[in-house]
Amino acid sequence: MKQILRGRWVAGAVTLMAALAVACGGGDDSSSSSPAATQAAAADDNDESAVAATLTEWAIAVDEDRASAGDVTFAVTNAGGVPHELAVVRADGAADALPTAAGLVDESQMEVLGRTSQIGGGASEEVTFSLTAGSYVLICNIPAHYDLGMRIGFTVE
Ligand SMILES: [Cu+2]
Predict the structure, then answer these.
(1) Tens digits of per-residue pLDDT, 63-91?
(2) If you measure from the C-alpha of residue 43 to the centroid of ligand 1, how many angstroms do you get, rounded to a whole number?
């Protein structure tokens, strides 16, 4: 009796392990195919040159930090509690190294490609700018906001 029970247990364990192996194999297959799917989705986004930007206190986040040259549409959401804007300026070098004066980025020293209006907390605005290949910085140039951290590099290629 004891031997029979042990035999069943072993058979059950082997069956369980086989099932786990199949499950793991399936998992490997799906994980190896998902990066390709993700890349395809990213490529589609680049072709459309659509960028989702989120403004908060005190940061700018984007779902894509680069786009193809041409018309680039920014869907900007202010997820913060005070008004913010998104301005696109052309600048080489680090995003936090723009020249400033009196708490503002000195826009007279750079090319400003465009900006949203001041967007209230919880509101959104969509803007499209024509951008040539190069290095840009997305900033919120409301007094002190840039220095507080509202800037992020953006590349057009
Ligand atoms: Cu701001």
Answers:
(1) 999 999 999 999 999 999 999 999 999 99
(2) 30
Distance, C-alpha 120 to centroid of its chain: 21
CA of residue 42 to ligand 1 center, whole Å: 28
pLDDT at 30 over 80: no
The full DSSP string for 99-136 is -EETTEE-GGGSEEEEE--PBPTT-EEEEEEEE-SEEE
Q: Cα(14) to centroid of ligand 1, in Å?
A: 61
Cis peptide before 58 (omega within 30 of 0): yes
CB 66 within 8 A of CB 157: yes
